[in-house]
Specification:
single chain; 438 residues; mainly beta; 2 domains; 9-stranded mixed beta sheet; 5 helices; 9% helix
C-alpha cells in the first residue's frame, strides 16, 4: 500500500497589510506573479495599490504639486522607507519647472538640535542617539517618476552609505539623489550598486571626507526583549529617534520588488521585528542596539488593512521589520567591489503545508532541480520541511527567508517529514550565480 503524506498543501493566507517604509512613485498592479527566490520558485500574493485615490487631501504642509497615490500591498507588507515630499502617503509627481538647485553639493540644510551637552547615561536612548546620529543621513531622490526621501547609514569616512534598494533605485534612469548630513550640509550622491533580491543598496556621496562611519554589529547573538533604537527621516523629519525592543527574530517577511526581464523580484528575508516606531521615510536607516551598534536596516512595516484590522493606515502600529546586519554585509562587500551579488540556493519549488490535525506545519517540496543542493542532499518531491538547522519552518515564506539568511557554501541540516518518518538531511547550499534571479 502506498504511503500517504499526512500533510495537505494549503492555500495562501493573506495577512494584514505590511508596507515598505516608502511609497512607490507608481502603482504596479498584478493579480498573480511567480518569482524564483534564488532558493525557491514561489507564487506571490496578489499585488494591489496600497492606497486608493483619496477623495480629499489629508492635512499636510503646502507642497508644489498634487500628490499621486503610490504604494504596494504584497502579502500584507508595505515598504517602510521613502516618504513622499510634503505628504504622508503620497509621492509627489515632478514639476516640469522644478529647479535642480536642490541637488547642489554642500548646500545648507537645517541642523537638528540634539539637546544639551550634558553627559548621557551609558546605555540610555539619549547616549545611543548622540553616538549614532552623526552616522545617519537623509536621502532625497528626484526622478521623472516622482520625488521622495529615505534614510541611510554612513559606512565609510569618504561617503559610502548603506540604504535600501527601494530608496536608491528611484534615482535610476536619470534621477538625482542628494544626502543631508547631521551637520546641516548636503552633497550629491550616486549609486555604487544595488541588489533588489535583498533590498540593499550602496550609494556614494560626492566629495565627502572625514565622515563618521556607524559601528556595525554582525553578530547573530540577538535576544528577544533587548532594547533597540531606530533612527531615520520619517515623513521627511530627519534625525528622528524612536525606541523599543526586539519583538521577535527570524520573522519571515516578503514584499514585492523590482520588475525585470524575468519577472518580479520578491524580497524575502528573516527579519528582526521591533515595536520601535518605523514610518515612511525610515527605510534604509539603522536599527541600533543599546551599545550604539547597528544590528539591522529598517525596511518595512505592517499596518492595519481594511476589514477586521481597521482602516488602511500608512503609519506605525508597532510592527516594524529590519534586515539583520549579519545578512547584509556579505552583499554590501560585493556591491562595494562592483561585483554581482550572490545568494544561497537550495534548488526546489515549495508550497505551504499543514498536517490534517493542524498541529504541525511546514513547507512542502513540489519539485527538486536536477543536480541541485536539494537533490544531492536527498530531498524529494512531497517531503515537508519542518526545520533548517535550529529554525522551525512554518511554511513556504519561512523556508525561503531562512535560506535567504544564509550564504552559498553553507552546510545545513534540513529536517523533513516523508510519510510518517522524519529524516535529517545534510545540504550544502548552492549559489544563484549565473542563474536568473527573478
Amino acid at each position: 500500500m502506498s504511503e500517504q503524506n499526512p500533510y495537505d498543501q494549503q492555500p495562501e493566507d493573506h495577512e494584514p497589510t505590511v508596507q515598505w517604509g516608502y511609497d512607490y512613485p507608481y502603482v504596479r498592479p498584478e493579480s498573480t506573479t511567480s518569482s524564483t527566490s534564488g532558493a525557491y520558485s514561489q507564487s506571490s500574493p496578489e499585488i494591489a495599490p496600497a492606497f486608493g485615490a483619496p477623495t480629499q487631501d489629508p492635512p499636510r504642509a503646502a507642497r508644489p504639486t498634487k500628490a499621486t497615490v503610490a504604494g504596494l500591498l504584497i502579502g500584507g507588507l508595505m515598504l517602510g522607507g521613502i516618504a513622499g515630499v510634503g505628504g504622508a502617503a503620497g509621492v509627489l509627481a515632478l514639476n516640469d519647472n522644478q529647479s535642480n538647485d536642490s541637488a547642489q553639493t554642500a548646500v545648507n540644510s537645517p541642523v537638528v538640535d540634539s539637546g544639551s551637552d550634558d553627559p548621557a547615561a551609558s546605555g540610555s536612548v539619549e547616549a545611543v542617539a548622540r553616538d549614532v546620529l552623526p552616522s545617519v543621513v537623509k536621502i532625497n531622490v528626484v526622478s521623472q517618476q516622482g520625488s521622495g526621501s529615505g534614510s541611510g547609514i554612513i559606512i565609510s569616512s569618504d561617503g559610502e552609505i548603506l540604504t535600501n534598494n527601494h530608496v536608491a533605485s528611484i534615482a535610476n534612469g536619470g534621477g538625482e539623489m542628494t544626502v543631508n548630513f547631521s551637520d546641516g550640509t548636503s552633497a550629491r550622491a550616486s549609486i555604487v550598486g544595488t541588489d533588489p533580491m535583498t533590498d540593499l543598496a550602496v550609494i556614494k556621496a560626492e566629495g565627502a571626507s572625514g565622515l563618521t562611519p556607524a559601528t556595525l554589529n554582525t553578530s547573530d547573538t540577538l535576544n528577544v526583549g533587548a532594547g533597540v533604537v531606530a533612527i531615520g527621516s520619517p515623513f521627511g523629519l530627519e534625525a528622528t529617534v524612536t525606541s523599543g525592543i526586539i519583538s521577535a527574530l527570524n520573522r519571515p517577511v516578503s514584499v514585492g520588488g523590482d520588475t525585470g526581464s524575468s519577472g518580479v523580484t520578491d524580497t524575502t528575508y528573516p527579519a528582526i521585528q521591533t515595536d520601535a516606531a518605523i514610518n515612511p521615510g525610515n527605510s534604509g536607516g539603522p536599527l541600533v542596539n543599546m551599545a550604539g551598534e547597528v544590528i539591522g536596516i529598517n525596511s518595512s512595516i505592517r499596518t492595519a488593512s481594511d476589514g477586521q484590522f481597521g482602516g488602511g493606515s500608512g503609519g506605525s502600529i508597532g510592527l516594524g521589520f529590519a534586515i539583520p546586519l549579519k545578512n547584509v554585509m556579505p552583499i554590501v562587500d560585493q556591491l562595494r567591489k562592483g561585483e554581482t551579488p550572490t545568494h544561497a540556493r537550495l534548488g526546489v519549488t515549495v508550497g505551504d503545508a499543514a498536517s490534517n490535525d493542524g498541529l504541525v506545519s511546514g513547507a512542502q517540496i513540489q519539485t527538486v532541480e536536477a543536480g541541485s543542493a536539494a537533490e544531492q542532499a536527498g530531498i524529494k518531491s512531497g517531503d515537508v520541511v519542518t526545520k533548517v538547522g535550529d529554525i522551525s519552518i512554518t511554511g513556504r515564506e519561512s523556508l525561503v527567508a531562512t535560506i535567504r539568511g544564509m550564504r552559498p557554501g553553507d552546510s545545513v541540516t534540513v529536517t523533513v517529514l516523508r510519510g510518517q518518518d522524519t529524516h535529517e538531511l545534510k545540504a550544502t547550499l548552492d549559489s544563484d550565480e549565473g542563474t536568473p534571479a527573478s
